[in-house]
Amino acid sequence: MTLTSLRQQLLAGEITPAAILARLAGGIAARDGQTGAYLSHDLEAAMAEAARADLTLPLGGIPIAIKDNINVLGQPCTCGSKFLAENYRSPYDATVIRKLRAAGAIPFGRMNLDEFAMGSATENSALQTTRNPHDPARIPGGSSGGSAAAVADRTAIAALGSDTGGSIRQPASHCGVVGLKPSYGRVSRYGLVAFASSLDQIGPLTHSVEDAARILQVIAGADPMDSTCLEVPVPDYLASLDAGVKGLKLGLPKEYFGEGIDPGVRRQVEAAVAGLAAQGAEVVEISLPHTTYAVATYYVVAPAEASSNLSRFDGIRYGHRAANPADVLDLYQRSREEGFGPEVKRRIILGTYVLSSGYYDAYYSRAQKVRTLIRRDFENAFTRVDAILAPVAPTPARQFGGTAIDPLHEYLSDIFTLAPNLAGICAISVPCGCTGFDGAAALPVGLQILGPHLGEAMLLRIARAAEQTR
């Protein structure tokens, strides 16, 4: 059931928060052994919150699963890494958790992810494998793979994830759920373990666009604990949700519909576009000419910021500490060698390199200039159109094994999701159909809708119309 329909039942007295938690726990026991979405869940603590839930609040009595890089007081926050899996417990609530609690929601469950959110498959988790509920031989996407898989597997009503380069939208597409990346600055990042601070955003994964709007309504807004969180009014996202798309102008970027797209993905996305046109939207071709540089730019900017952010994991203040170090330098080196996985090490090395003396201007400084050009592409496009339509990923969910075989190929799979993060705009993935792949069962495909900065109200309105054409 959707969050919205459960709220109606709660208010009507047809179900209780404790009963919802009991059903979720039963589903986790029955199915999560195969899916592997949950790293942990504290039913006793959640039941205690359920007993005092205020059902009159916007999310009163609704359990929300939390990606395991968002701090919840007293709970683990492993980031899918051995570095934090041993004994770390969060000493505080992230701002989004504080806001969820204030709205009556119950944080329930810690969801698996690529280690420190670095990956597109949840294959990089050091703790366990998460599988796609539609086909256990395939990835759920990443890095918010546990959050998307649990919602798709009906072991979570809704979940929070984080999106640095597509980590909400891509697993949402692969698992057939809704995934929203808010504009940079719309939602506080305080309490989110930082990967790339100028790119990271927290957002919901849900069964419906309306559910995503309800959660965004709660978690959006200014926060004095995050200087990058904007002090701007938060609109009523539900007010215009059903206004439709008649009279809107939607852009199709030619750079997103070139070679390399699976025919089944193209077919489903084009059908979704046709559905919006049938509802009265005008669809026009546009160009985002610097799209071809997005992958290279992202994999300079994001690792550079990650190498700085992850320097705090030194084996001294918290997390894994190497045994019997010879000196402080040995402690640093062995703690990080033992605690970090291959992909995290790869990105730290890459980031340190592009920031090093003699290479800063050649790589990092140039990447920031190209990032400005990418942002201007979107700004120019939004003077002509209200929103942009595109695929989320070039292919449906692939089989396991890709990251270890060819990391570069894995990076290229995010080609359609990286640019919105570089530009700081809002974006959403909405299920638009299924396609067969390699003779396997039908696999979900997502339509990506991109909106201007702080344009979530329009974005959700268009997403709702797309959802209704399925």
Quaternary structure annotation: single chain
Radius of gyration over C-alpha positions, nearest whole angstrom? 21 Å
CATH topology: Amidase signature (AS) enzymes
How many H/I helical runs? 17
CATH architect. name: Alpha-Beta Complex
Side by side, the strands of the main sheet go 1-3-2-4-6-5-10-11-9-7-8
What is the helical fraction, as a range of percent? Answer: 25-40%
The number of strands is 11
Label the overall shape.
Answer: globular
Series of H and E elements? HHEHEHHEHEHEEHEHEHHHHEHHHEEH
In CATH, the homologous superfamily goes by the name Amidase signature (AS) domain
Unreliable residue stretches: none
Distance between the termini: 18 Å
Largest sheet: 11 strands, mixed
Mean pLDDT: 96
Describe the protein's architecture and organization:
By secondary structure, this protein is α/β, with parallel strands linked by helices. It has one domain (1-470): Amidase signature (AS) domain (Amidase signature (AS) enzymes). 39% of the residues lie in helices and 13% in strands. The protein has 17 helices and eleven strands. Strands 1-3-2-4-6-5-10-11-9-7-8 form an eleven-stranded mixed sheet. Helix 8 runs antiparallel to helix 17 and helix 10 packs across helix 12 (342-355). The protein is globular and about 70 Å long.
